[in-house]
Amino acid sequence: LLRRVPIRMKLAGALAVPLTALAIVTGLEVVNAAGERQAVRDQTALAEISLGPSSILSALEEERNASGVYLLGMEDQFALEVEDPVEAAQITDATIEQFRAEVERQGPDIVEAYAPAFEAMEGLADLRATVTGTPDGARGLENFDAVAENFDAFTEIMDSLAQTNRRVALAIDDAQLRQGAELVDLNSQQTNLVAILVRDLLAASIGGDRDGVQDPDEIAAIARSLSQFRTNMDLIVTTGTGRYAPLVEDLLAAEEVQRFPEVVDETLATGVVDLGAVTAYATVEDPDALAYTVF
Fold this sequence. Notes:
By secondary structure, this protein is an all-alpha fold. It is 74% helix and 0% strand. The protein has eleven helices and no strands. Helix 2 (34-72) runs antiparallel to helix 3, helix 2 (34-72) runs antiparallel to helix 6 and helix 8 (216-239) runs antiparallel to helix 10. The radius of gyration is 20 Å and the shape is globular. 38% of the residues are buried.
């Protein structure tokens, strides 16, 4: 059963242990000085806040994916956790409001830090209007330019939140909590990179001149994303020690994690996009079985 739980959920479970330990220290007031007790409370709050954006990023990814697949009219080709873009938007909004309430309970520094990310999220309304306003007759492979524009706009919003969260996570002093926060961030980066690679491979296959990966700019973009994917995987391995090591082992054992970069390598070597392999290792019939929650 554990192998069927997305890696993000497994990390959250592992992080609960050091978080609970900090909460117990605070509750029992083992630390005598009031200032030190407050410092422990602050660390607990920082750790909890640093995990919040991973839920928003996950919701935004699901909405971005649902929107893109809907605009392409390819709902039958991809297994998504949420297939309806309207439903995905509702989930995203609920997640954002929950996190906004948590941020507002923190000090002014945290509120100020996340203000640009919340401002960026105001752009979601226009993106959603474009998706829901697209008539059924316009949904199809010829709509790929609009899909790419929508995808990139979602990604910019996500990047704003991710960058803020990395700055906040740097303030976590507890080694285990900071280690977990770094793994959550790396996981989010990997999820996003896989989605970007799928987008670029689809663009080469069904967008533009549909001649595969031949253009030097296409090759360079895909190669950069793949290189970053592998760099991040190395960081996950070196960071995922101690209580996090079994989770990393499960991740590395997943077939889609092993095969997807190999499929991208084959595309770069031949210029031919194997859409069957791309969809097979970037998505499965049961999305919960994925090591990453992606397209």
